[in-house]
Write a sequence for this structure.
């Protein structure tokens, strides 16, 4: 059983994308990191719909390096942000300061949000809640702090993804352990220990208290091996696989097998 301390320590070593995309912690460094983020993950701005956050009370859970948080602040949201790690909160605070923006940022835990019931119009969280040991509890917390009519915009990982296939080939089949489950491969080889991924049906269960639940799982740069796929995965074999990865076939026949599962849902 993964502990929250393990999750904290993993992400406090380096925030998400820090080693790959953040070369300096000045304005230019953060701009370059954002540019690369939205080039690789172009569906984020559409999903987050930053501009519509103007005058809305918004909580972001798991701010990381703060690129999305900056966009919410620029849009004029009444903004709050938390992250489990001091490092992410420091990065995001530094980033906002450099751009003359503000937010109420604190170290905090998605499973125990320090906010009253029905506080927010929007709760946004990109790639975070699947890292927390008790994901269902974190989603209940999202529900609790949303106002009636409020909207959750949450990205969690999708189990039936090309990234999952690759991890399974590498750490189960090629490791001579074809009986290994996808669950254990995600937990031990994708980012922080205990990382989880969900089927669409499981995600619907997680968001069962919500209404108007919309889910999409587009192919991303990791599924298509179009980038440095993560801070844990580098090396010769990956470079070789990248050359031969059947991107055309995947785009044509396996749409919907993306790792990123975007869930938008409303509290009635
Ligand atoms: C993959 S990063 C994503 C960061 C950012 N949202 C992004 O897209 O770059 C995961 C983040 O979730 C944070 N996190 C993990 N568990 C958390 C929890 N229980 N409460 C708050 N933040 C958590 C980590 O500290 C880390 O910054």
């Amino acid at each position: 059983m993964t502990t929250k301390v393990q999750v904290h320590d993993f992400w406090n070593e380096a925030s998400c994308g820090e080693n790959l995309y953040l070369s300096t912690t000045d304005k230019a460094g953060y701009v370059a990191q954002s540019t690369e983020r939205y080039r690789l993950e172009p569906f984020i701005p559409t999903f987050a719909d930053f501009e519509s956050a103007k005058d809305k009370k918004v909580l972001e859970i798991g701010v990381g390096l703060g690129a999305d948080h900056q966009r919410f602040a620029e849009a004029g949201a009444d903004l709050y942000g938390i992250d489990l790690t001091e490092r992410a909160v420091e990065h995001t605070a530094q980033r906002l300061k450099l751009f003359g923006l503000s937010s109420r940022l604190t170290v905090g835990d998605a499973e125990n949000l320090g906010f009253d019931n029905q506080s927010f119009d929007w709760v946004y969280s990109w790639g975070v809640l699947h890292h927390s040991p008790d994901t269902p509890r974190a989603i209940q917390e999202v529900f609790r702090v949303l106002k009636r009519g409020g909207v959750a915009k949450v990205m969690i990982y999708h189990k039936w993804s090309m990234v999952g296939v690759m991890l399974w080939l590498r750490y189960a089949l090629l490791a001579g352990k074809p009986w290994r489950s996808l669950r254990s491969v995600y937990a031990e080889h994708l980012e922080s220990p205990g990382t989880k991924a969900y089927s669409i049906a499981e995600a619907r269960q997680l968001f069962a208290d919500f209404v108007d639940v919309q889910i999409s799982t587009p192919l991303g740069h990791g599924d298509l091996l179009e980038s440095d796929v993560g801070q844990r995965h580098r090396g010769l074999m990956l470079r070789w696989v990248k050359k031969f990865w059947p991107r055309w076939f995947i785009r044509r026949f396996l749409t919907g097998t993306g790792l990123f599962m975007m869930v938008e849902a409303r509290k009635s």
Remarks:
- The two ends are 34 Å apart (CA to CA).
- The mean pLDDT is 95.
- The CA atoms of residues 38 and 45 lie 8 Å apart.
